[in-house]
């Protein structure tokens, strides 16, 4: 029987592999689409992906973490009410998003200088949104039972199902329409849902019920978390939105390249944060702030040791990377990529501290911080784009990242007495400790 420590390590690995596979296939899709689509179509596709991904991520942040938190702190008799209530909220969120597409999609598409193309893509994707209601529900059920393997498997099938048509079009030197890409994306969702449903049969509860008390608890716990993550997604992608609005959709791809690289390096950060959330929550329920502090310092130090050298190597070879992944016509993205690589290193402390703050139950504070940071960044990006053109958003991002780092250090010292010295010790000891661990095995 595996110990809690072994289970935690296994979950971290599986969650990280999940994030890695999603980012890897996203990167491979990017490599093919940037060569098959025009700059304009590629920009529109990037904005479409941002919209649907931001929605799913935000919806998941409302439901999934609250679902896990409730199961940890509740008895077995509450499980049907937790499952039914979370599924109802899941469905209502998706319904509101669909209504937004139908009512405001065309206006949004026009505002972003995309005519009606984006709105038609979003309407075509409505079946995909409905499928993801059940996919995300089963995913939450799996992770609530500490099973990350089945989520990883289902997502692999989902990603491969979208990748295969792209290989076909690329091999035969054809360019798919944007609407066709949306249909392929929906089919991939259906494949992933079917696989996850098969793997979730033993966890599925046939009799579920709705509890308004639990619904209120989910919104109380996850409401600010969802709003905060909406703002986080907006902050991460607002550069592409403003470039499309203020300059041209043809230049969205330049920031898309930098975002893809950032997503790749975010894998260990997101994987560690997601897999350790149950452990953080358990430590919080046991009022063990010392253990939470230790988790945070170790996570930041270890991630700095992993990501810093990779980022610096990519920084030195940024031109070659752009040439490989996008081609010489996107070489103007070099400076943007270099700036974003530095931002990745700076944001490690903020990223892990932000998730720790959530585990402490301070979702309202998390939302407030994100709201202020988002507003400042949007204003700064707007002003810098006006004065510096294409590079404006990148300049704003690194300035905000530095300011944010200082703020989060002060905040974590206040709540957990986090030690920068301990983080540096974990940073310096990471590779020697890892080598010794592997050697002993």
Please state the average pLDDT score.
82
Distance between the termini: 19 Å
Low-confidence stretches: 1-5
In quaternary terms, these chains amount to single chain
Query: What share of residues is helical?
Result: over 70%
Number of helices: 16
Q: What's the number of structural domains?
A: 1
User: What share of the residues does DSSP label as strand, in percent?
Assistant: under 5%
Describe the biggest sheet?
none
What is the 3D shape?
A: globular
Classify the secondary structure makeup into a structural class. Answer: mainly alpha
Please provide the count of β strands: 0
Q: Please tell me how large the radius of gyration is.
A: 22 Å
Order of helices and strands: HHHHHHHHHHHHHHHH
Question: Describe it for me?
Answer:
With 441 residues, the protein is mainly α. It has one domain. It has helices spanning 4-36, 39-73, 79-111, 117-124, 126-144, 149-171, 178-199, 212-246, 252-265, 267-285, 289-316, 318-325, 334-359, 363-388, 392-416, 420-440. The protein is built from 16 helices and no strands. The chain is globular and about 60 Å long.
């Amino acid at each position: 029987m595996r110990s809690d420590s072994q289970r935690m390590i296994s979950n971290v690995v599986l969650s990280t592999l999940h994030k890695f596979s999603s980012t890897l296939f996203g990167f491979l899709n990017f490599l093919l689409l940037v060569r098959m689509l025009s700059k304009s179509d590629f920009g529109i596709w990037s904005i479409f992906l941002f919209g649907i991904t931001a929605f799913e991520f935000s919806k998941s942040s409302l439901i999934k973490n609250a679902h896990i938190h409730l199961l940890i702190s509740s008895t077995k008799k509450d499980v049907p009410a937790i499952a039914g209530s979370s599924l109802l909220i899941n469905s209502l969120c998706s319904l509101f998003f669909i209504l937004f597409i139908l009512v405001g999609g065309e206006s949004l598409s026009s505002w972003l200088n995309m005519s009606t193309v984006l709105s038609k893509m979003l309407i075509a994707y409505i079946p995909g949104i409905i499928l993801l209601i059940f996919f995300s529900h089963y995913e939450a059920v799996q992770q609530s039972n500490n099973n990350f393997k089945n989520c990883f498997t289902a997502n692999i099938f989902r990603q491969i199902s979208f990748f295969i048509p792209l290989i076909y079009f690329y091999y035969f030197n054809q360019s798919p329409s944007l609407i066709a890409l949306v249909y392929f994306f929906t089919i991939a969702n259906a494949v992933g849902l079917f696989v996850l449903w098969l793997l979730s049969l033993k966890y599925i509860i046939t009799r579920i019920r709705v509890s308004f008390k639990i619904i209120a608890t989910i919104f109380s716990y996850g409401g600010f978390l969802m709003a905060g993550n909406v703002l986080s997604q907006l902050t991460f992608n607002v550069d592409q939105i403003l470039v499309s609005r203020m300059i041209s959709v043809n230049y969205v791809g330049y920031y898309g390249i930098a975002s893809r690289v950032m997503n790749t390096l975010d894998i260990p950060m997101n994987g560690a944060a997601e897999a350790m959330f149950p452990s953080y929550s358990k430590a919080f329920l046991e009022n063990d702030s010392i253990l939470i502090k230790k988790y945070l310092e170790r996570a930041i130090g270890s991630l700095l040791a992993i990501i810093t050298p990779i980022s610096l190597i990519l920084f030195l070879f940024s031109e070659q990377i752009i040439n490989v992944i996008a081609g010489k016509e996107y070489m103007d993205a070099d400076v943007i990529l270099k700036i974003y690589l530095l931002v990745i290193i700076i944001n490690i402390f903020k990223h892990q501290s932000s998730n720790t703050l959530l585990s402490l139950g301070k979702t309202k504070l998390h939302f407030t911080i994100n709201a202020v940071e988002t507003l400042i960044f949007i204003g700064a990006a707007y002003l810098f784009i006006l004065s510096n053109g294409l590079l404006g958003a990148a300049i704003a991002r690194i300035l905000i990242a530095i300011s944010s780092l200082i703020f989060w250090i002060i905040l974590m010292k206040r709540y957990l007495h986090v030690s920068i010295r301990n983080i540096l010790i974990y940073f310096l000891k990471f590779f020697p400790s890892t080598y010794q661990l592997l050697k002993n095995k």
